Description:
Chain A is of the alpha/beta class. Helix content of chain A is 49%, strand content 10%. The longest helix of chain A is centred in the first third of the chain and has 17 residues, at 52-68.
Amino acid sequence: MNVAYYPGCSLHGLAKEYGISVEVACKHLGINLKEIEDWNCCGATAAHSLNHELTISLSARNLAIARDMKMNKVLAPCAGCFSRLKGASYELRNNKALAAEVGEIIQAEPPVEPEVNNLLQFIMEEQGIDALRAKVVKPLQGLKLAAYYGCLLTRPKEVVQFDDPEQPVSMDLILQALGAEPVVWAHKAECCGGGYAASDTDIVIDLSGQILESAQIAGADAIVVACPMCGVNLDTRQEAIAAKKGKKYDLPIIYLTQLMGIAFGYSPAQLGLKRHLNSPFPLLQSKGLL
Amino acid sequence: MLNTADFYHVLRIDQTSNSLREEIKEHCHTDIEMCLECGKCSGGCSNAHIFDITPRKIIQLIKVGEEAKLLKMDALWSCVACQLCVDRCPSSINIPRIMDYLREKAYSQGVPASRPNVELFHELMLNNIKRFGRVPEALLSVEFNIRSKQYTKDAEMGMKMFFKGKLNPIPARIKNIKQVQRMFRDIPAQREG
């Protein structure tokens, strides 16, 4: 099937390995990613923090291009981009006055279609667990994983309308289908500190620290993410968090699509596994997966 | 028997200063009169432990029209927009949208941000989007360090990330940048930007 693909800035930069592995995993599942032509940044935290109309307009342009490409679904693997696109789509559908204003700004019919999906919803609804399981050639046996959803893959519930907002299960089910063992833990949908990565790092160290702590208590070997902000915060700030708490975590932060790639039989190089600061190699080698 | 309308009427604690409340109703499409004062928003809040004013109190301050206090509160610049408050609210009051509305109002009126670096980062990011259509992450980090005078912040980590191929040294501009720049026309000139 064809789907409009919105990588967003991070999948071309800070989380390149997420972008690479999304492409590998989707190709393997027979999904043709059609990148939205000349897409612009979703505005991220900055735009919605300072200007509501701007944040809706930035996403509306991307949705309008996807619509003009005759796509009825947009896949946005970054949870931040997903939230902006999905939120804009919701507002354009429900707020006619704003939709008219935005249409004037982007000089196009306000795009009320297409549907916006994050990676989890897309896999669950377009593939399904059984189809996914059938593609596994190397089950991730012996891997105890903390499925980490963060804030925006399932919230706000009225807009996202997928999975449970605070006790989600979709990623756990996907990991199970890949042969891994998801752990039961308390922080699967807590916030990592998101957009404060550079601007107020202490917030990230505090919130991401609680997540690492919780995953460790639950006995996870690694944390699995489907969002570049979660991925980058938990990976790059782990050293500072460990220093602050005076302990070691040694928790690799792995993108869900990288694990799908391993289970589908792809090599570490094809999945960008060398790009992490906390290397997943020792863990994956110890389980005989590399 | 008390019907629902009467019940909510009891909660209208201040009939005299309702302009902010009306504004929020109009712009945020959410009615704070539906607040039950249950405190689930503050209970769920990711950053309540560092907020100067917690979500439930914010709703109460809107009710009594304490606008000046709200526009300078630190919570505007430390909210992580994690959406827990709105999802836990039995009345679905859209607190994250209210926070955005108040922050936008504070910003457009030039109320000093309690965390100037957070505001600066947002401004620099928007300037880059205006210039390139996308965010050049490496350039943004360097600009932020210089402008916030934290010259060596994350320098070591930045080098590691560079060698892992995570930072693109050359920013890319989208083709139709004019369409994006058009979106910025109504935005008040950003200070020093």
